[in-house]
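Hey Z.,

So I finally got round to the S-adenosylmethionine thing we talked about over coffee. Here's the setup:
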Amino acid sequence: MMTASTPAAPTRARNKFVTDSWNRLARAYDFPILQRLAYRPPQDEILEQLHLTDARRIADIGCGTGILASRIYEEIGPDVLYGCDASEGMLAQAKARTPEVNWINRQAEDLGLPDGAVDAVVSTHAFHFFEHAPAVAEFHRILAPGGLLAIVVANQHNLLGQFFQLTTSPSVMYFPTIEEMRDLVEEAGFTLLTQRPIRRPLPGAFIPDVLTVARKH
Ligand SMILES: C[S@@+](CC[C@H](N)C(=O)[O-])C[C@H]1O[C@@H](n2cnc3c(N)ncnc32)[C@H](O)[C@@H]1O
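And the result:
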């Protein structure tokens, strides 16, 4: 059964170290090669998923410098769009990128949005910092019935994930396995739709990240 939350210290998501680190990294984060190699492929697949839905209210959680949320605005044009991040430094970069997104400085586990506020919640490469079960419960709460959840996070079934997990304390971040992600979303009341590695030109052992897509009952 679910073990994803087991190694997580209860304070991980509120860990000042995480937020302070991202405040410091914010200016370097948009470096084009880093973005193209690491972050763009999962963002492309999240956009693909959103194009398959008629979601008009969308939230990007752990939005960082706002690249994905800005692309959602430009490529989908939703009626309501939130970009949420715990780091003021990352959000400052996001705010400079576009005023068309509602940028909110909140923790993923306590988003401060009303119940059923959005039709889709997306998140790329931030979930490993969250308190897993409380965050998924919060996503479930803010989603309308039938709403879509799409999360990309690195996992432990590959060399990169193992390296990060071995070199970083689970109290700072924890990479869930594919099975743990499945259990997390199902136990929160979602129906799992798909789980697969993000398409990258890499051998399987190096595939660092997995897309999990689920729907609220
Ligand atoms: C690797 S960046 C990913 C940013 C963006 N999603 C992307 O794909 O480019 C991780 C982000 O998660 C944010 N973060 C970490 N813990 C958080 C939490 N509990 N709630 C909201 N944001 C958090 C960090 O501040 C950081 O901006």
